[in-house]
Structure formats: C-alpha cells, structure tokens
C-alpha cells in the first residue's frame, strides 16, 4: 500500500466517523484536562500502568488503557480492571474513541493511553486528531513491525515523531534519536523533557516484584516532575500499580513434590533486542548461568519473527540449550544444521501434546531456570493454560 493510499484511507476513516461522531469526540476531549500518550517500541504497557499509578497517588481521577498481552482499562475508582473484548477482525485505533468517551462519562480528569497505532499515518491521526494528547512519551526506538514502519530504526523514529504534540510536552530517552526528536519538537513549539535513566538506582529497581528497567521508571518520574509531583509520592504510586499480565515474571513449574523448573516468562518482549536486555538482567542477577535453557514458542504466521529470534537472539547466546514448541520450528533447526547458528543442544517439541511438553520440560530442566521467549500466542498460550488448569505453576517473587 502506497503512502498516498494510506493517507486517503486515513481521511476516509475520519470521514467515516461522521461529523456528529467527530464533534462528540472533540467535546469529550475538551472535558479531560490531562491526556498522556505513551508511545515507543517496548515497555509501553508497563509505563502506561506506572504513569497511571503516579497520577492516582496524587488524587487524579485517572483512567489508564493498555494494549499489552491483554488490553485493559484501569480505573481510579475501582480495583477491578476491565478487559477489552475485541471483534474477530482484531484491534483497531477506533477503540480508543470509546475509551475517551468512557473517561468523560465517568468524570475522569486525566487519561493515559498506550499508543496502539502502528502505521505512521495512523499514528498522526490518532495522536493529533483523535486523542490530541498534551503529553507524549516516546519510551524507546527498537526494531518492530518493520513491514509497516519501515526497514530501519530511522523510519520507526520518524513514525513516532508524528505523535509529538503541538504546544505540549514530549518525554524522550537520551539516545541516538534525542536530537532528532528535539528538532521536531521545536518545530511544533513543544517542550522537551529528557529522562534521567542513570538517576534510577538498583535499589529502586529491586523494590518491584517484577522485572522493570531504568527506562520504565525514568519516564513516569520525568512526567511526575513536569507535573509538580514529588519523587517519593511518584515512587509510591508506581509501586502500587499492578503489572501487566504479560510482564517478565518468574514462575515455579511442577508438582509440590517435584524439583521445580523456574520459568523466566519473557514472552511479552516479543523481539530480540528487548529479550536480550531481559537475558542480560537475569544473567547479572545470577538467575541464568552458563549454557542457558531457552524455551521458544514459534507461530506459523510469524515465520519472520522466528528467523529474527534465531539469528539475533539464539545465535548470540553461547552454548544455548534450545527447546522449541509451536509451529515452523524447522526454521531454527535449518539454521543450526547450516552452521549459521551454533547451540549446545536443540530439541523440537512441535506436534507434541501439552502433557508431553510439560513432562519433557520437567525432565530436561529440573532444578534449572528456563527463559521463555518468542510470541506467547498459539501453542505457548495453550501450554500455559494447561499449567494453570492443572495447578502446575505459581508465581515467584523476583527478589
């Protein structure tokens, strides 16, 4: 699809809203004073939850909406989160309009939305027309959705830059795209806040019972500072925020009498760069040692992603022992046999029953830590549902 066709489609989408619908959305937006858009490649869901927690801590009537493993709406005035049921056609950016309306009807004065637009033109329409955010955070720029956003990180940064608000505030990382984002912000009369990752101590990271990175905490702290919220209160709010169901956590797998397998659940990372960060963190903490065991779930409709993980993650780990489940696991085997990727051991469980996968894992990895990577959907999702239904796993604290 050409850029011109996409632009025409975007215009068509706006027209499709109808004049009345567009006016109603405008009226809803005007009644929500603080509108924060969380954009970037990885960590958006965690940052959305943490920013929502910060605002709750100082009394904002805030609603947060995530698009992570399970899309959720977080309310300031009730404990239960609302799961969003999506049509068979899948998610689309128009669900954000219904969330904006819910926020207005509930009397929210702050709304934190995780950006769900992918196509660059959609990002522009969503951020500047639908939501009209007055604060945007660009958490990071990694490779993702390369078929849509472009073959290079530069094009991904260009797409994210479209969400920098006019006459607002953009929060960015101190990385190779900082100067570019600052230049775009200046053109839009937008203030810039560069996050302070070095200011996030290891002690603070360890106060969370799930894996967070300095970047995850530095963004909410930067937003808090801009809003005049003191650091201690902001930290209290972040600690009270619930993690996303897909966040990297540790689980013990096995019967009570078994020597457990410890699963480091990193499926939400969903691309090699972020997964490598998790691996390095686990290695630094001593949870993963030499010759790590990697459980990768492969999807039939994501063969490119399997190739990417094989080359840029498995291929970079020395003496990896790899267990593959799902479909098209032959991609990994082919790379190993050709010598392009070297591993210590490889085991494919494609086509095996969920019980067989469980029994193999317990035999092969008893007493060890297994790093779970790839995309969770498909056989991976079925396997963890099997563990849950049979009471075969439980969460374990990170520290």
TrEMBL record:
GO biological processes: capsule polysaccharide biosynthetic process
Pfam families referenced in this protein's UniProt entry, alphabetically: Mur_ligase_M
Domain of life per record: Bacteria
Domain Mur ligase central: 38-195
Cellular component GO terms, alphabetical: membrane
One Gene Ontology term of the molecular function aspect: acid-amino acid ligase activity
Protein name as annotated: Poly-gamma-glutamate synthase PgsB
Species of provenance: Alloiococcus otitis ATCC 51267
